[in-house]
Design a protein that fits this description.
- By secondary structure, this protein is an alpha/beta fold.
- 35% of the residues lie in helices and 12% in strands.
- Strands 5-4-3-6-7 form a five-stranded mixed β-sheet.
- A hairpin with a 5-residue loop joins strand 4 and strand 5.
């Protein structure tokens, strides 16, 4: 499938539950020219490092990769993941981006409108907990609303199930509305970058002219029908979470959590989101669902800020000590160094 220097020579790649076919599969190869310096007489080839990393993303266990009779030790698999992940990460902006041209925006609007009739929707936003396993994380800020250590990850998806924006840098206890206020996409929406387009969020987000949430305590048939349409449209993002985590078991709770440093966990999360988009674009079959993960609804408690309907508050800076409306001190973001205008990790 790949030649000696790690460049793809075939338009078909199959690896366990991964399968990328068509011209887009060459992207996976081209990202993985791993010309690594080594003192070993028998260095692991770039293609083997790539396969080991992909296998780890798929199963979430170093030991299971070792058990595949690849001849690699646990340490070798760990080093391969550490080498491949940052190389793939450089290409996240190419594969994770929101619609920008008029035709792209129109297609997204039409795709969402066809679901339940809500107009001008450019994306669905929600947070999902990615479990991590690190005994050194004793700070309670890592414990999310589901009572396990996690990275709270903000995701925006389009009508095709593509992840168009991702923020993977906040501890599990961070509220979704706080992540939104401190994200590039949230600040762009507040400045009117998306024009008349809107995003749909759950009750954990503040209601704004560009961010529409369900009606609290609907008092009329019209409001009830709107909530039904809102729920029907937002099922897409819940489905994307399920597919994404089933395809990449390393971010699924059934794997026991990512056994990496928090910053490396964030990098892996973004890389798997990029690979998810590649799989969607080339028409890869959806993986079977994995038992033990509840993705039906991840709504948080209603945000008190929703009372300020249609107002725009000054967006807080992520590097300051901020607190929520309940005066609970918010955790600080991880000190990540790879940033881009549309994708934060």
């Amino acid at each position: 499938m790949v030649n000696g220097n790690g460049v793809g020579t075939s338009n078909h790649f199959s690896f366990n539950i991964f399968e990328f076919s068509g011209s887009a599969s060459r992207d996976v190869y081209l990202h993985c020219k791993l010309n690594l310096a080594t003192r070993c007489n028998f260095a692991i080839s770039p293609e083997v490092q790539l396969l080991a990393a992909l296998r780890f993303y798929a199963v979430g266990s170093f030991l299971e990769v070792v058990g595949d009779e690849t001849g690699l030790s646990k340490a070798s698999v760990s080093r391969s993941v550490a080498a491949v992940t940052p190389i793939l990460l450089r290409h996240a902006r190419t594969h994770i981006k929101m619609a920008t041209t008029r035709d792209e925006v129109r297609m997204v609007h039409e795709g969402f409108h066809a679901v339940a009739g809500i107009p001008r929707v450019i994306g669905l936003v929600d947070g999902t907990l990615i479990p991590i396993h690190n005994p050194s994380l004793v700070d309670p800020c890592w414990i999310g609303r589901k009572h396990y250590a996690a990275i709270n990850t903000q995701v925006v998806v389009d009508h095709n199930g593509l992840i168009t924006d991702i923020v993977a840098r906040w501890p599990g206890s961070t509220h979704d509305s706080f992540m939104w206020a401190n994200s590039a996409v949230g600040q762009k929406a507040g400045r009117g970058v998306f024009g008349r387009s809107i995003l749909l969020g759950d009750s954990g987000y503040p209601l704004r002219r560009y961010l529409v949430t369900p009606v609290t305590n609907p008092a009329s048939p019209q409001e009830e029908r709107f909530n039904e349409a809102h729920t029907s449209t937002r099922t897409k993002i819940e489905r994307v979470f399920g597919i994404w985590k089933s395809r990449f078991r390393c971010i699924h709770r059934s794997s026991g959590g990512l056994r990496l440093s928090p910053i490396k966990c964030c990098h892996v999360i973004v890389v798997t989101a990029m690979l998810h988009n590649i799989a969607v674009r080339v028409g890869t079959d959806e993986p079977p669902p994995v038992a033990g993960e509840e993705e039906q609804s991840e709504d948080e408690a209603p945000n008190p800020a929703k009372r300020e309907q249609y107002s725009i508050r000054p967006e807080p800076r992520p590097d300051r000590n901020l607190s929520t409306s309940s005066e609970v001190q918010q955790p600080q973001p991880l000190p990540l160094h790879h940033k881009s205008p549309s994708t934060e990790h």
